Amino acid sequence: MEDCGLAPAAGRDYHPRMRFPAKDGLPPFSLRENPRSRRVTLRLTPGGELRLTVPPGFDPAMAHHVVEARRDWIERCMDKLGRPGGSPPDPPDELRLRAADESWRVDYAERGQGPVRLRTNAGGRLLVSGGLADRQAVRRALLDFCRARGRDILPGLAEELAREAGEDLAGVTVRAQRSRWGSCSSRGSLSLNAKLLFLPQRVAVYVIRHELAHLRHLNHSPAFWERVTELEPDWRAREKELKESRFLVPGFLG
How deeply is 50 buried, as exposed, middle or buried, from its count of CB atoms within 10 A (0-12, 13-18, 19+)? Predict the structure, then answer.
C-alpha cells in the first residue's frame, strides 16, 4: 500500500465511492471514503485495480493530483502485474526467494510441442524446457518448484517460531494461493503460501507469527492484536511492508 502523506481538506461532502477515468497515460481508478481513515492511501490490487482511499472531508478535485504524484510507482507496479488489456507478463528470468536467501536463475529451452519440464542445475539455475508456448504449463512448472521449496523451508520455520511463542502446531501445509498469505485452522494447523518465500524474511516471519496468534484467538479481536504485539512488537511496520511486498512476487506467477 502506498501512503501518499496528504492531509484531508475540510468542509467537503460527496458520495463515498467515485470512479475516475484514465487520463494522461494513467489508468482509471476508484476513490473510496473511509470514515476510519486518517490519511490518503493508494493501492494497486493484484488484479490491476487502482484504489484511492481517503478520510472524510477529502476534496475529490485533488484525486488526480494524488495519482499523478505516484505515477512512477504505479507504472513500476503495473509492469510487474502486466498491464490490463496488454500482453501478460513474461516468465521470470530469476526467482529471488528472499525469505530463504536464495536466488535461482531461470533458463528456457524451446523443444517443439513436448511437455514442459523443469529441472535444477548446478549453481542455482533452473532449466524449463518443452513447448514453451503453453504459458500455463510453464507457470505450473515454476509454481511447482516454488511449492517444493516452500515445503522444504516454511514448515521448519513455522515450527521454530511456534516453539519461540510457546505454541504447539498440529501441522503445516504449503500451497500457492493467489491471494491469501496464510491461515490457521480451528484444529491448530497452519496453511502457508509458498509465495511467502519471495518476501523479505522479516515479513514472512511476521505472517507466520500473525497466524500463530490465531491459535489462541480465531478472530481479529483486541485480544488477538494483543497477542500479535507480544509476538511481533513492530507489527504495524510489518503490515505496511507486507502490503507493499506483494509486488515482489513475479507477476507471471500471479
Answer: buried
